[in-house]
Fold each of these.
Amino acid sequence: MQLKILTVDDSRAVRIIVKKAFKTYNVELIEAANGVEGLAAASKETPDLILLDVTMPVMDGVEMLTKLKSDPGLKNIPVVMLTAEAGREMVLKIAKLGIRDYIVKPFKEDVLTEKVGRIIDLRPISDTPNKKKTLSDRCDILVVEDKPAIIEQIKRGFRNPTWQVHGVASTGETIDFCQKSVPDLIMISLSLPDESAYTLFRLLRSNMKTKYVPVFGLVVKTDLHAQQQAQQFGFTSIITKPIDYEDLETKIAKAINLDTSERYFAFEEDYLIVHVPETNSTAALNEVSSYLKPKIAEAVDNGYTRVIFDVHTIKSVNMSFIKLLVDSMGICKELTLSYSLVGNPNVASECKGFEESKDWVFYSSIEEAKSRSL
Amino acid sequence: MSDNLIPFTNEEIEEMVIEAINKFFATMLDWEVEFVGSRDGVNEEDIDGPPAPVLPSEEPLVVGMVGFIGTLSGVMNIHLIETLACLITSGFLGMSLEEIEEEPEVVNDALGEMGNMIGGVFKNSLCDQGYSCRMTLPSILRGSNFTIETPSGVFRRIYDFKCQGRLFSADLTIKPGE
């Protein structure tokens, strides 16, 4: 649900700056130029928070606040004063009326979002489901590790060229990096000196900009104590060294809500081609499975009538793999789509050993499957 | 000449003005500002004629004006050449110079708020030292080759600054309030 913030300020410049400060957050900004307009907008929109100036024509901020607090329907809306008035008497007078915070102009945009973020659950736009990133979008991964060799290894480990790995060695460098640009994901080595990984984690979670950025802990497989401690702290996931990059990529995709369907689904000519991943691990098959229904529905919606399941890279067959294909075929039948299988002799032979797949017929290539289905 | 008109020395007032200017530019624009110097607001040599412009320039000027009323009352005017006014607006509101050119009235909004913020910091310093006062709504003055005159018996001093390679001035008038 999109939050609403009402900014009441006679200065259009301040309203522009406020809008700019919240542009990366999932909030709707409502504007009013004085207390009268502000009260009307508050009644109509019931905002989640009001930013209120003091000195305004028609009705000033103190009068608006007084009226707001005497209205049973509006009195619980949190109010943050945003004003150049910082005289002790004025601040005390306003504080007595009941406000949540007081920001004195001139102000840093970060201070504004930070203070507002302590009152309402501000979320960056990228966290909202309608802005899902895909594999072709740039993804910035910040690795906090004091061993440069590990950072280099991670840089080389990812298959996706749009994933940019940035390396920093300390808490200070991490904070500086995040001030300039917020990464999509942060990986922190749990073996940083003086347990600074945990201090850094707390700092990241207390900062508005990085509050919702997934944070992975990076640790040697045998250090169970650190893994347990990181889980208790609330790290999004724990990655063990030596790193299994396929597993790491799957975890990252899940953590940042990345749409990885293009890795497995392609629309070619009249066909929807489903490429089952080479290593048919449960995690990878679950990932394919999560896209099955929406992708097949998309195919039907766009007039496709044929589906090819390409499993030719699979080295060995297991029950998760059989189940995925059985489910997929079921969806195709339900939607009256024709389907064919492409596989290697080994897969074909192993499938004969399972009751569910003993009658499956495999073509040796996508081209053969296409020509036979004509 | 104005030392006895208000309960502050020239140095104390200067410090408050510099703080107000620096706070605005550092917080809202992340810019460094150089204090060039200060001078009396009334030119003794021209005492019988019209006073000289605060900021002599061939270019049109924009002045952001804000007042304060209370134990001490006065006006803080920020005089800028139009080019600098546009640069400040651009940095302040995050707009490009092209966008500002298409919507020139936004400069008035920005300069009005700049005056409000600078005047606010200055006024708050006065309040913190026991001289309570309230701010007035800001206004903008535009034009070329004009002077602003004040009645006698008030403290007036002009503080010159430089940023982005251009001069600008803070013109302060104060008198004891009612």
Amino acid sequence: MALFMNLSKNKDPLFIELGKIERSEQMKSATFQKLQTRIQKKRSIPVMPAVISVALATVTFFLVFSFMNESPETAGSLTDAEAIEKVLNMQLNKPEDEFFEVVYAKWQRMEEVYASETEYTSDPMEGTPELIAYEEYIEKNFKPYFTTNGFDNFKVQPMDFHYFFAMDNQRNYEMELLDLNIEQSENTATNYSFTAEVEYTDPDGESNVYNLTGRAIVPEQGKIGQINFTDANEFQQKISDDATP
Amino acid sequence: MNQQIENYYHEHSDRVYRYIFLLVRNKENAEDLTQETFYKAHKGMSSFNGEASPATWLLKIARNVTFDYFRKKRIIQFFSWGDEHDQEASSIAPDASAEKKEQILELYDAINRLKKDYRDVIILRKIQEFPIKDTAYILGWTEAKVKTKSGRAMEALKQELAGKDGVIHESF
């Protein structure tokens, strides 16, 4: 069928027609009702009868006490593959705005702190609100998926592990994890290999798909001990180059 | 319920729904994500400082909500236009003639074969008719990038349509 249209015009009638999507009044009002219920439910919590609140507090206390000897994150009990997927989704998708704000604030502070030629006897960044905020962010987002040692190692990995770090001073790019396959080793149950397909669109709008391979060791259920990539296509180099002013 | 959100819902929910529908191609999911959009708007109302119009602000939330949904579901490739979506196709341009509707669906199908950035900018600029400034706000791009991407997206769309028909007929 021939498609009659003039794409050079700003307002092609076909585009306008395409925007006309029917929505039934019935569904519209049903959605409104659900929204209303959801908002009111949220509000009703503070006026819950005191006896229920006390009961909930007791149960909460009991649960917290029961888990005191375990890491709090174990309550989530993710599978190994889910933990790997969570971490890779955070690393290989463009981060949320909060991430950029936290990292950029830390970098700005580092520039100020290290600008003077004073000889330091301890790290001058230590204890700064920016570094604390950064560490809290990383801890909040990544720690639940690592063993204690695994997280300590992860935090101090060289920058090239954290693909998005190179872009901390600009947000004008896109990065999206298109596909991810995780496979458990047949010989060693704690070992996993994965392939990740990532679309990266540079600040000029040019897109490329990069294929990364990697391995993870998960010694405890849902807790990663180690995770590495092989960057055969120099993806990291590309985003570092783009981030260079 | 907050009166302001209620007003926004009545004024803008159709536009939000249509935008989401174009991305997810499913009535039920579009309704659910519309609800999620207004719920998030309700929660974030105090941070809305009027830097954009309410409609633009809501569309930005809708886009984030929809792409969060895709990430969670890991639906990265948009659906191909198959029999299972014929029912959803009935929602698009319900009053158009059969011939016109076929053209509209063909255009929609071509848009959905484009890469994500191009789809995003065409849906907002051409279908939803947002100005460059508002499109930039919704997508988190610079205005220059919106202009560049719009041009490239339209070129890509022409090629997509030409690939299907062999020729693009610019008859009017």
